[in-house]
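Page 37, continued from 36.
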């Protein structure tokens, strides 16, 4: 039996404090699951204007935290609260950096001072721990925003007794975001120039905070086994495949779990009527379907399925093939609702498509958690035609809501969804491999056609609902990984 660990999770977003995507769900749920396994877990996130709006019960923990940036000290304040009555959480407040409408980028593009914002965040984590006198066994870093933490520990803090026994794990939630900045930002980090090389932070002449995390942490993980294999290839490695092959022995895949207190039709606080997950066609789901149609101002007879989508509007999510497929899809016996926000080009595209197909397609350009829950519960099918998908959460949420996923077979989508076979009655969704409008259309047509057969449809819904993707088993895998990281740190 391994010992109880002291763990700090460092994340640039976590529910209920802030969210742009799946990372927030993971960073809000994993600490609770680790705590339930008996470990001491704390969480650090920035305090954004979005966090302020949550009306949290926060207190001031450290009134002035001085964080070195270049040759000056930047001040911040550490606020604290307790996540879900379980996990002490520190919110680093620095209004110049974080009191903004968005977290990382506006529809027009990234904030120009992102390097400085997340140098500050990464360094604040270490400075804060010292002030709190909390030495973690493991710091669990997530994505490029915390990628400098392992580099700091291996350089500026290498001889610091306080962190002598602290190891690091770096989880990649999306390799597409690499925290790339020009080399002249290097002095702002205070990291030594000796690590500005191919085995360090340098990346094709620039610096990459993601690469820093990949090179300097004791172990690496990503959010599905499939994606952990894919990212070692040029197609999915997005330039990092060499680094990932180099660190292959230390790279693990752990699929994300689901917080069923939040994402289950039995407990959902946002839906019109909760319903059971026993797989029987329920009144509750019908009520949620009606509510969703009303919310979006759509009409659909009961044999017309609603296909839902909730997504960041980014190239990764397959909107190019969806746009190409739409004229054909709109001829089918279906209606669609899409909730999304992100890049301006997609805002424009979907505003136009919404107009053109207004009887059968409704697009809401917004970030709206309540509507997201209503789409999960009220839709009959859920579409994710992603070009790549590290894990994907909505397809896993959809299963519990009896909302059948139609996905492209990539990364976590491929790992979690098995194509339904009407002969054997096995499978939980619909899946296509080739990234093309044609294959997407075929997959949707198969789903729509099966929907017309209530016996078969009930079977697939039952298969989906009875699956259990709760966090417990993934949290246990993380504990194993933390122990591996601890061992590695002892050796190095
Ligand atoms: P990613 O992290 O790449 O955005 P995931 O599928 O892992 O994709 O997680 C997306 C999470 O963000 C889900 O919880 C989803 O419901 C939520 N989400 C995405 N876009 C929106 C939106 N426009 N409004 C509300 N929630 C959203």
């Amino acid at each position: 039996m391994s010992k109880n660990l002291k763990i700090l999770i460092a994340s640039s977003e976590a529910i209920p404090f802030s969210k742009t995507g799946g990372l927030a769900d993971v960073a809000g749920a994993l600490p609770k699951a680790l705590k339930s396994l008996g470990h001491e877990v704390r969480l650090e996130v920035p305090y954004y204007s979005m966090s302020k709006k949550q009306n949290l019960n926060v207190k001031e923990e450290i009134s002035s935290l001085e964080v070195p940036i270049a040759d000056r000290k930047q001040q911040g304040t550490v606020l604290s609260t307790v996540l879900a009555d379980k996990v002490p959480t520190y919110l680093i407040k620095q209004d110049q950096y974080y009191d903004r409408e968005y977290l990382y980028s506006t529809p027009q593009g990234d904030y120009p001072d992102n390097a400085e914002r997340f140098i500050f965040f990464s360094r604040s984590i270490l400075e804060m721990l010292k002030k709190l006198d909390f030495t973690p066994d493991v710091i669990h870093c997530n994505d490029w925003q915390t990628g400098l933490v392992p580099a700091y520990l291996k350089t500026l803090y290498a001889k610091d007794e306080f962190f002598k026994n602290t190891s690091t794990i770096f989880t990649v939630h999306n390799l597409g975001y690499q925290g790339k900045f020009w080399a002249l930002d290097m002095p702002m980090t205070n990291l030594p120039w000796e690590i500005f090389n191919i085995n360090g932070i340098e990346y094709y002449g620039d610096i990459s905070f993601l690469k820093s995390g990949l090179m300097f942490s004791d172990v690496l993980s990503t959010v599905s086994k499939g994606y952990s294999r894919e990212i070692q290839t040029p197609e999915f490695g997005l330039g990092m495949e060499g680094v990932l092959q180099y660190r292959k022995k230390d790279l693990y895949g752990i699929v994300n779990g689901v917080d069923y207190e939040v994402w289950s039709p039995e407990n959902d606080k946002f839906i019109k009527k909760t319903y059971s997950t026993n797989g029987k066609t329920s009144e509750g789901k019908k009520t949620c379907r009606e509510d969703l149609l009303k919310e979006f101002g759509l009409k659909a007879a009961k044999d017309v399925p609603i296909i839902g989508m909730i997504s960041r509007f980014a190239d990764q999510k397959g909107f190019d093939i969806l746009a190409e497929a739409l004229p054909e899809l709109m001829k089918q016996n279906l209606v669609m609702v899409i909730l999304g926000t992100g890049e301006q080009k997609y805002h424009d595209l979907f505003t136009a498509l919404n107009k053109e197909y207004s009887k059968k397609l409704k697009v809401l350009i917004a970030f709206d958690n309540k509507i997201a829950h209503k789409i999960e519960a009220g839709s009959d099918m859920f579409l994710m035609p992603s070009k790549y998908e590290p894990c994907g959460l909505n397809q896993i949420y959809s299963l519990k809501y009896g909302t059948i996923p139609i996905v492209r077979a990539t990364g976590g989508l491929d790992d979690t969804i098995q194509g339904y076979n009407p002969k054997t009655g096995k499978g939980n969704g619909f899946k296509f491999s080739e990234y093309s409008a044609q294959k997407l259309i075929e997959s949707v047509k198969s789903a729509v056609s099966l929907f017309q057969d209530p016996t078969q449809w009930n079977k697939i819904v039952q298969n989906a609902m009875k699956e259990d993707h709760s966090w417990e088993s993934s949290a246990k895998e993380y504990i194993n990984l933390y122990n591996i990281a601890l061992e590695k740190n002892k050796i190095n």
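The mean pLDDT is 96. Flag for discussion at group meeting. The CA atoms of residues 43 and 340 lie 28 Å apart.
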